[in-house]
Design goal:
- The complex is a heterodimer of chains A (about 260) and B (about 500).
- Chain A is mainly alpha-helical and about 260 residues long.
- Chain A has one domain: MetI-like (MetI-like fold), CATH 1.10.3720.
- Helices cover about 70% and strands about 0% of the residues of chain A.
- Chain A has helices at about 5-30, 65-70, 75-100, 105-120, 120-130, 135-145, 150-165, 165-175, 180-215, 225-235, 240-265.
- The longest helix of chain A is centred in the last third of the chain and has 37 residues, at about 180-215.
- With about 500 residues, chain B is of the alpha/beta class.
- Chain B has 21 helices and 19 strands.
- Chain B has a 6-stranded mixed beta sheet with strand order 6-7-8-3-9-10, sandwiched between helices. Chain B has a 6-stranded mixed beta sheet with strand order 15-16-17-13-18-19, sandwiched between helices. Chain B has a 4-stranded antiparallel beta sheet with strand order 2-1-4-5, covered by helices on one side.
- The chains are: A mainly alpha (about 260), B alpha/beta (about 500).
- At the A-B interface, helix 8 and helix 9 of A face strand 4, helix 13, strand 15 and helix 17 of B.
Chain lengths: ~260, ~500
Amino acid sequence: MNISPQHRSTRIQIFVYCVLGFHAVVALIAPFLPLMPTDKQDSGAMLQGFSSAHWLGTDALGRDVLSRTLHGGRPSLAIAILATALSAVIGIALGSLAALAGGWVDEALSRLIDFLLALPTLILLLLIASFFGHDPFILIVTLGFMYAAPIARVARASTQVLLARDFVRVARLQGGRGVNILLGEVLPNVWRVVFTEIAMQFTWIILAFSSLSFLGLGASPPTPEWGLMIAEARSYMTINPTAVIAPIVMLASLVLAVQALVDRE
Amino acid sequence: MNAILQFDHVCVEARDGNGAVTPILDSVDITVEAGEKFGIVGGSGSGKSTLLRIAAGVLSPGLHHTSGNVSTAGVSMLTVAPKVRQQMYGSSVALVAQSLGEALTSHLTVRAHFRDTLGRDVSDETILSSLDDAGLDGAKYLNRYPHQISGGERQRVLLALALVRSPSLLLLDEPTSALDVGIAADVLATIVRLQESRGFALVCVSHDIGVIGRVCDRVAVMSRGRIVEHGATSQVLTSPSDPYTRSLLASIPRLNVRIREPHASEQQPVVVVRDLTVIRSGSSRALDSINVEVGKGEVVGVIGESGSGKSTLLSVICGLIPSTSGSIHNANGFDLTTPLRDRPAAVLSEIQMVFQNPDDSLNPVRTVEQSLARYTHANREEVLAALDAVELSEQFLTRRPSEMSGGEKQRVAIARALLAHPQLLLLDEVTSALDVTVQASVVKMLASVQIATGMSMVIVSHDIALIASFADRLIVLRNGQVVEQGSAGDVIDSPSDPYTQHLVKLAKTNSF
């Protein structure tokens, strides 16, 4: 009979899982792969194209592009995972407490969320990074706070909906109070809704960190990081384009795969 | 005679992502002649709405037509080019879908809806006469948006829209399920009048056999995708041959059949409500100087149409909505206008409430055992005893709401209320979301729980027959005021207030 769109979507899903699996595995085992050291400079082989020694060629300092590309996701992923976790905790706490408290507390917290949303993220990140340097801890905390606002907004809205539901009313009739109801009845359900938003923020945080590196304020040389690699190699793009294309492909495929995954949810 | 709608051994199945196959329609045969009034009755999940949508050529996503032929107005609906089907809509077949809220486009006026259907240059006279036919004073409605008209009026607008291009077949999906009894009766009368004056064929789907009985000449009874019985309406309703039809008919609450014997309560009341007034959103009075007492072991029924304040009354008694003035006290004189968080645990558990919508009553992430024990701190034995009281087996302990039917969820919700050992159980339309057969078994179960525990109950429903079969005393609410109260027998047999007389008369015409 008719070919249902479901079959196509399962195929896309499998592809998405493969891409994500590839990224996860590569990030985890890159140091154990038989690759050249990421910082080994070969002054005799700068800006080379494909060769059996350097599969993706070399960059301006003669470093192996393949090795650097496969290592390049590690700093972004580590920082993005930690920052996303922080923003999820802050966002859910802020949003659900605002909805639970109501009244002026809600009003005040909502304005705080609006304030965070209104901040020009990248400019503020640049400012903080130029003040505090390359400290990853500061970066994680900053990213965590700045990307918490959209999560807080979704958490607040879904908490409000949940608080009006009958099973919450029954809980109140049976002696459940404030935080007890929040933890027992609301949050397990909020989580399902907020998860998509959190995954989206994860992709924005990865892009933000790569952008910072590109601008010279994220990862510092000689760390292999995709944003930084693009920045370093773009001047020689006409001589060895793979040094730019490889990190772009990696970054784009990771971000797209995560977004496609949450689209399915 | 020529058939306007013909189903010939039609089979439809649902396939989910895991490849599981569920039959939705199982070799369905139907023939509807031109100008005939045909009804299809069945519980939820019986396939009746799917059947109706397929008659209009619509197959919902996930459903697959495996065999058989559907012919509507001589056209093979499921194989014809979509363009031809598009042209048939309105001119030869029209479908009025169930959900009133979504059937009209919220940003379009009534006039704009007609222009969408008939083209831009349609004259206001055409629209007015069409609305007039459907029983609406057209001039008042032309410029209104869907949210500015009531449910019954919306249903009439939908009817006018469906009929404006004079189709030869009108398909109606649950035309009255969202309406109050009084309004439903008026809408049904309009449908019958229109059908008789215009002579189109009508196929009406409903869970309510009373609706079908009043509108249709012939009826088919559906259960689990099969037509288990069909024939002339009068014959099927009076001498059903199929066991399912018989159980369906036996489940309908009747005004003069009691499932629990009434007894007068002389003991101290468990709750006393004096001069209770509730003002919500501005100045409208949801409740206006209500005086009610519920005796120990007494079952009080509250009836009234939507907006009469009956659900508000329950919510105020249990403390979910604050009162504006007046007093509520329990047997020991404790002030029940105290906010929930300031009440001692013993007072809290005295009054429990069960809500209308079973899908909303249980936390979707919790198992039955977790839901039952979380706030009541009941141990495994007590939980099992409560499940037993609501006639559910031990297997349900580990189920989640998504794995249960509406009736099962409602039983769990009742069990949870029972575990608090309340003196007063408030039941807000607890059966209205359930199929008739399930509804009957839940009410029977409630009656046996009441007899076993002797707890007091206040039961709110729009279904007078159901309440009359169960309650000792009746309270009739209208616009937030008590218009009549008395023993159930007296109120039903000799209602004194005109509004009560009207409600009882409607309930009588609804049963047969």
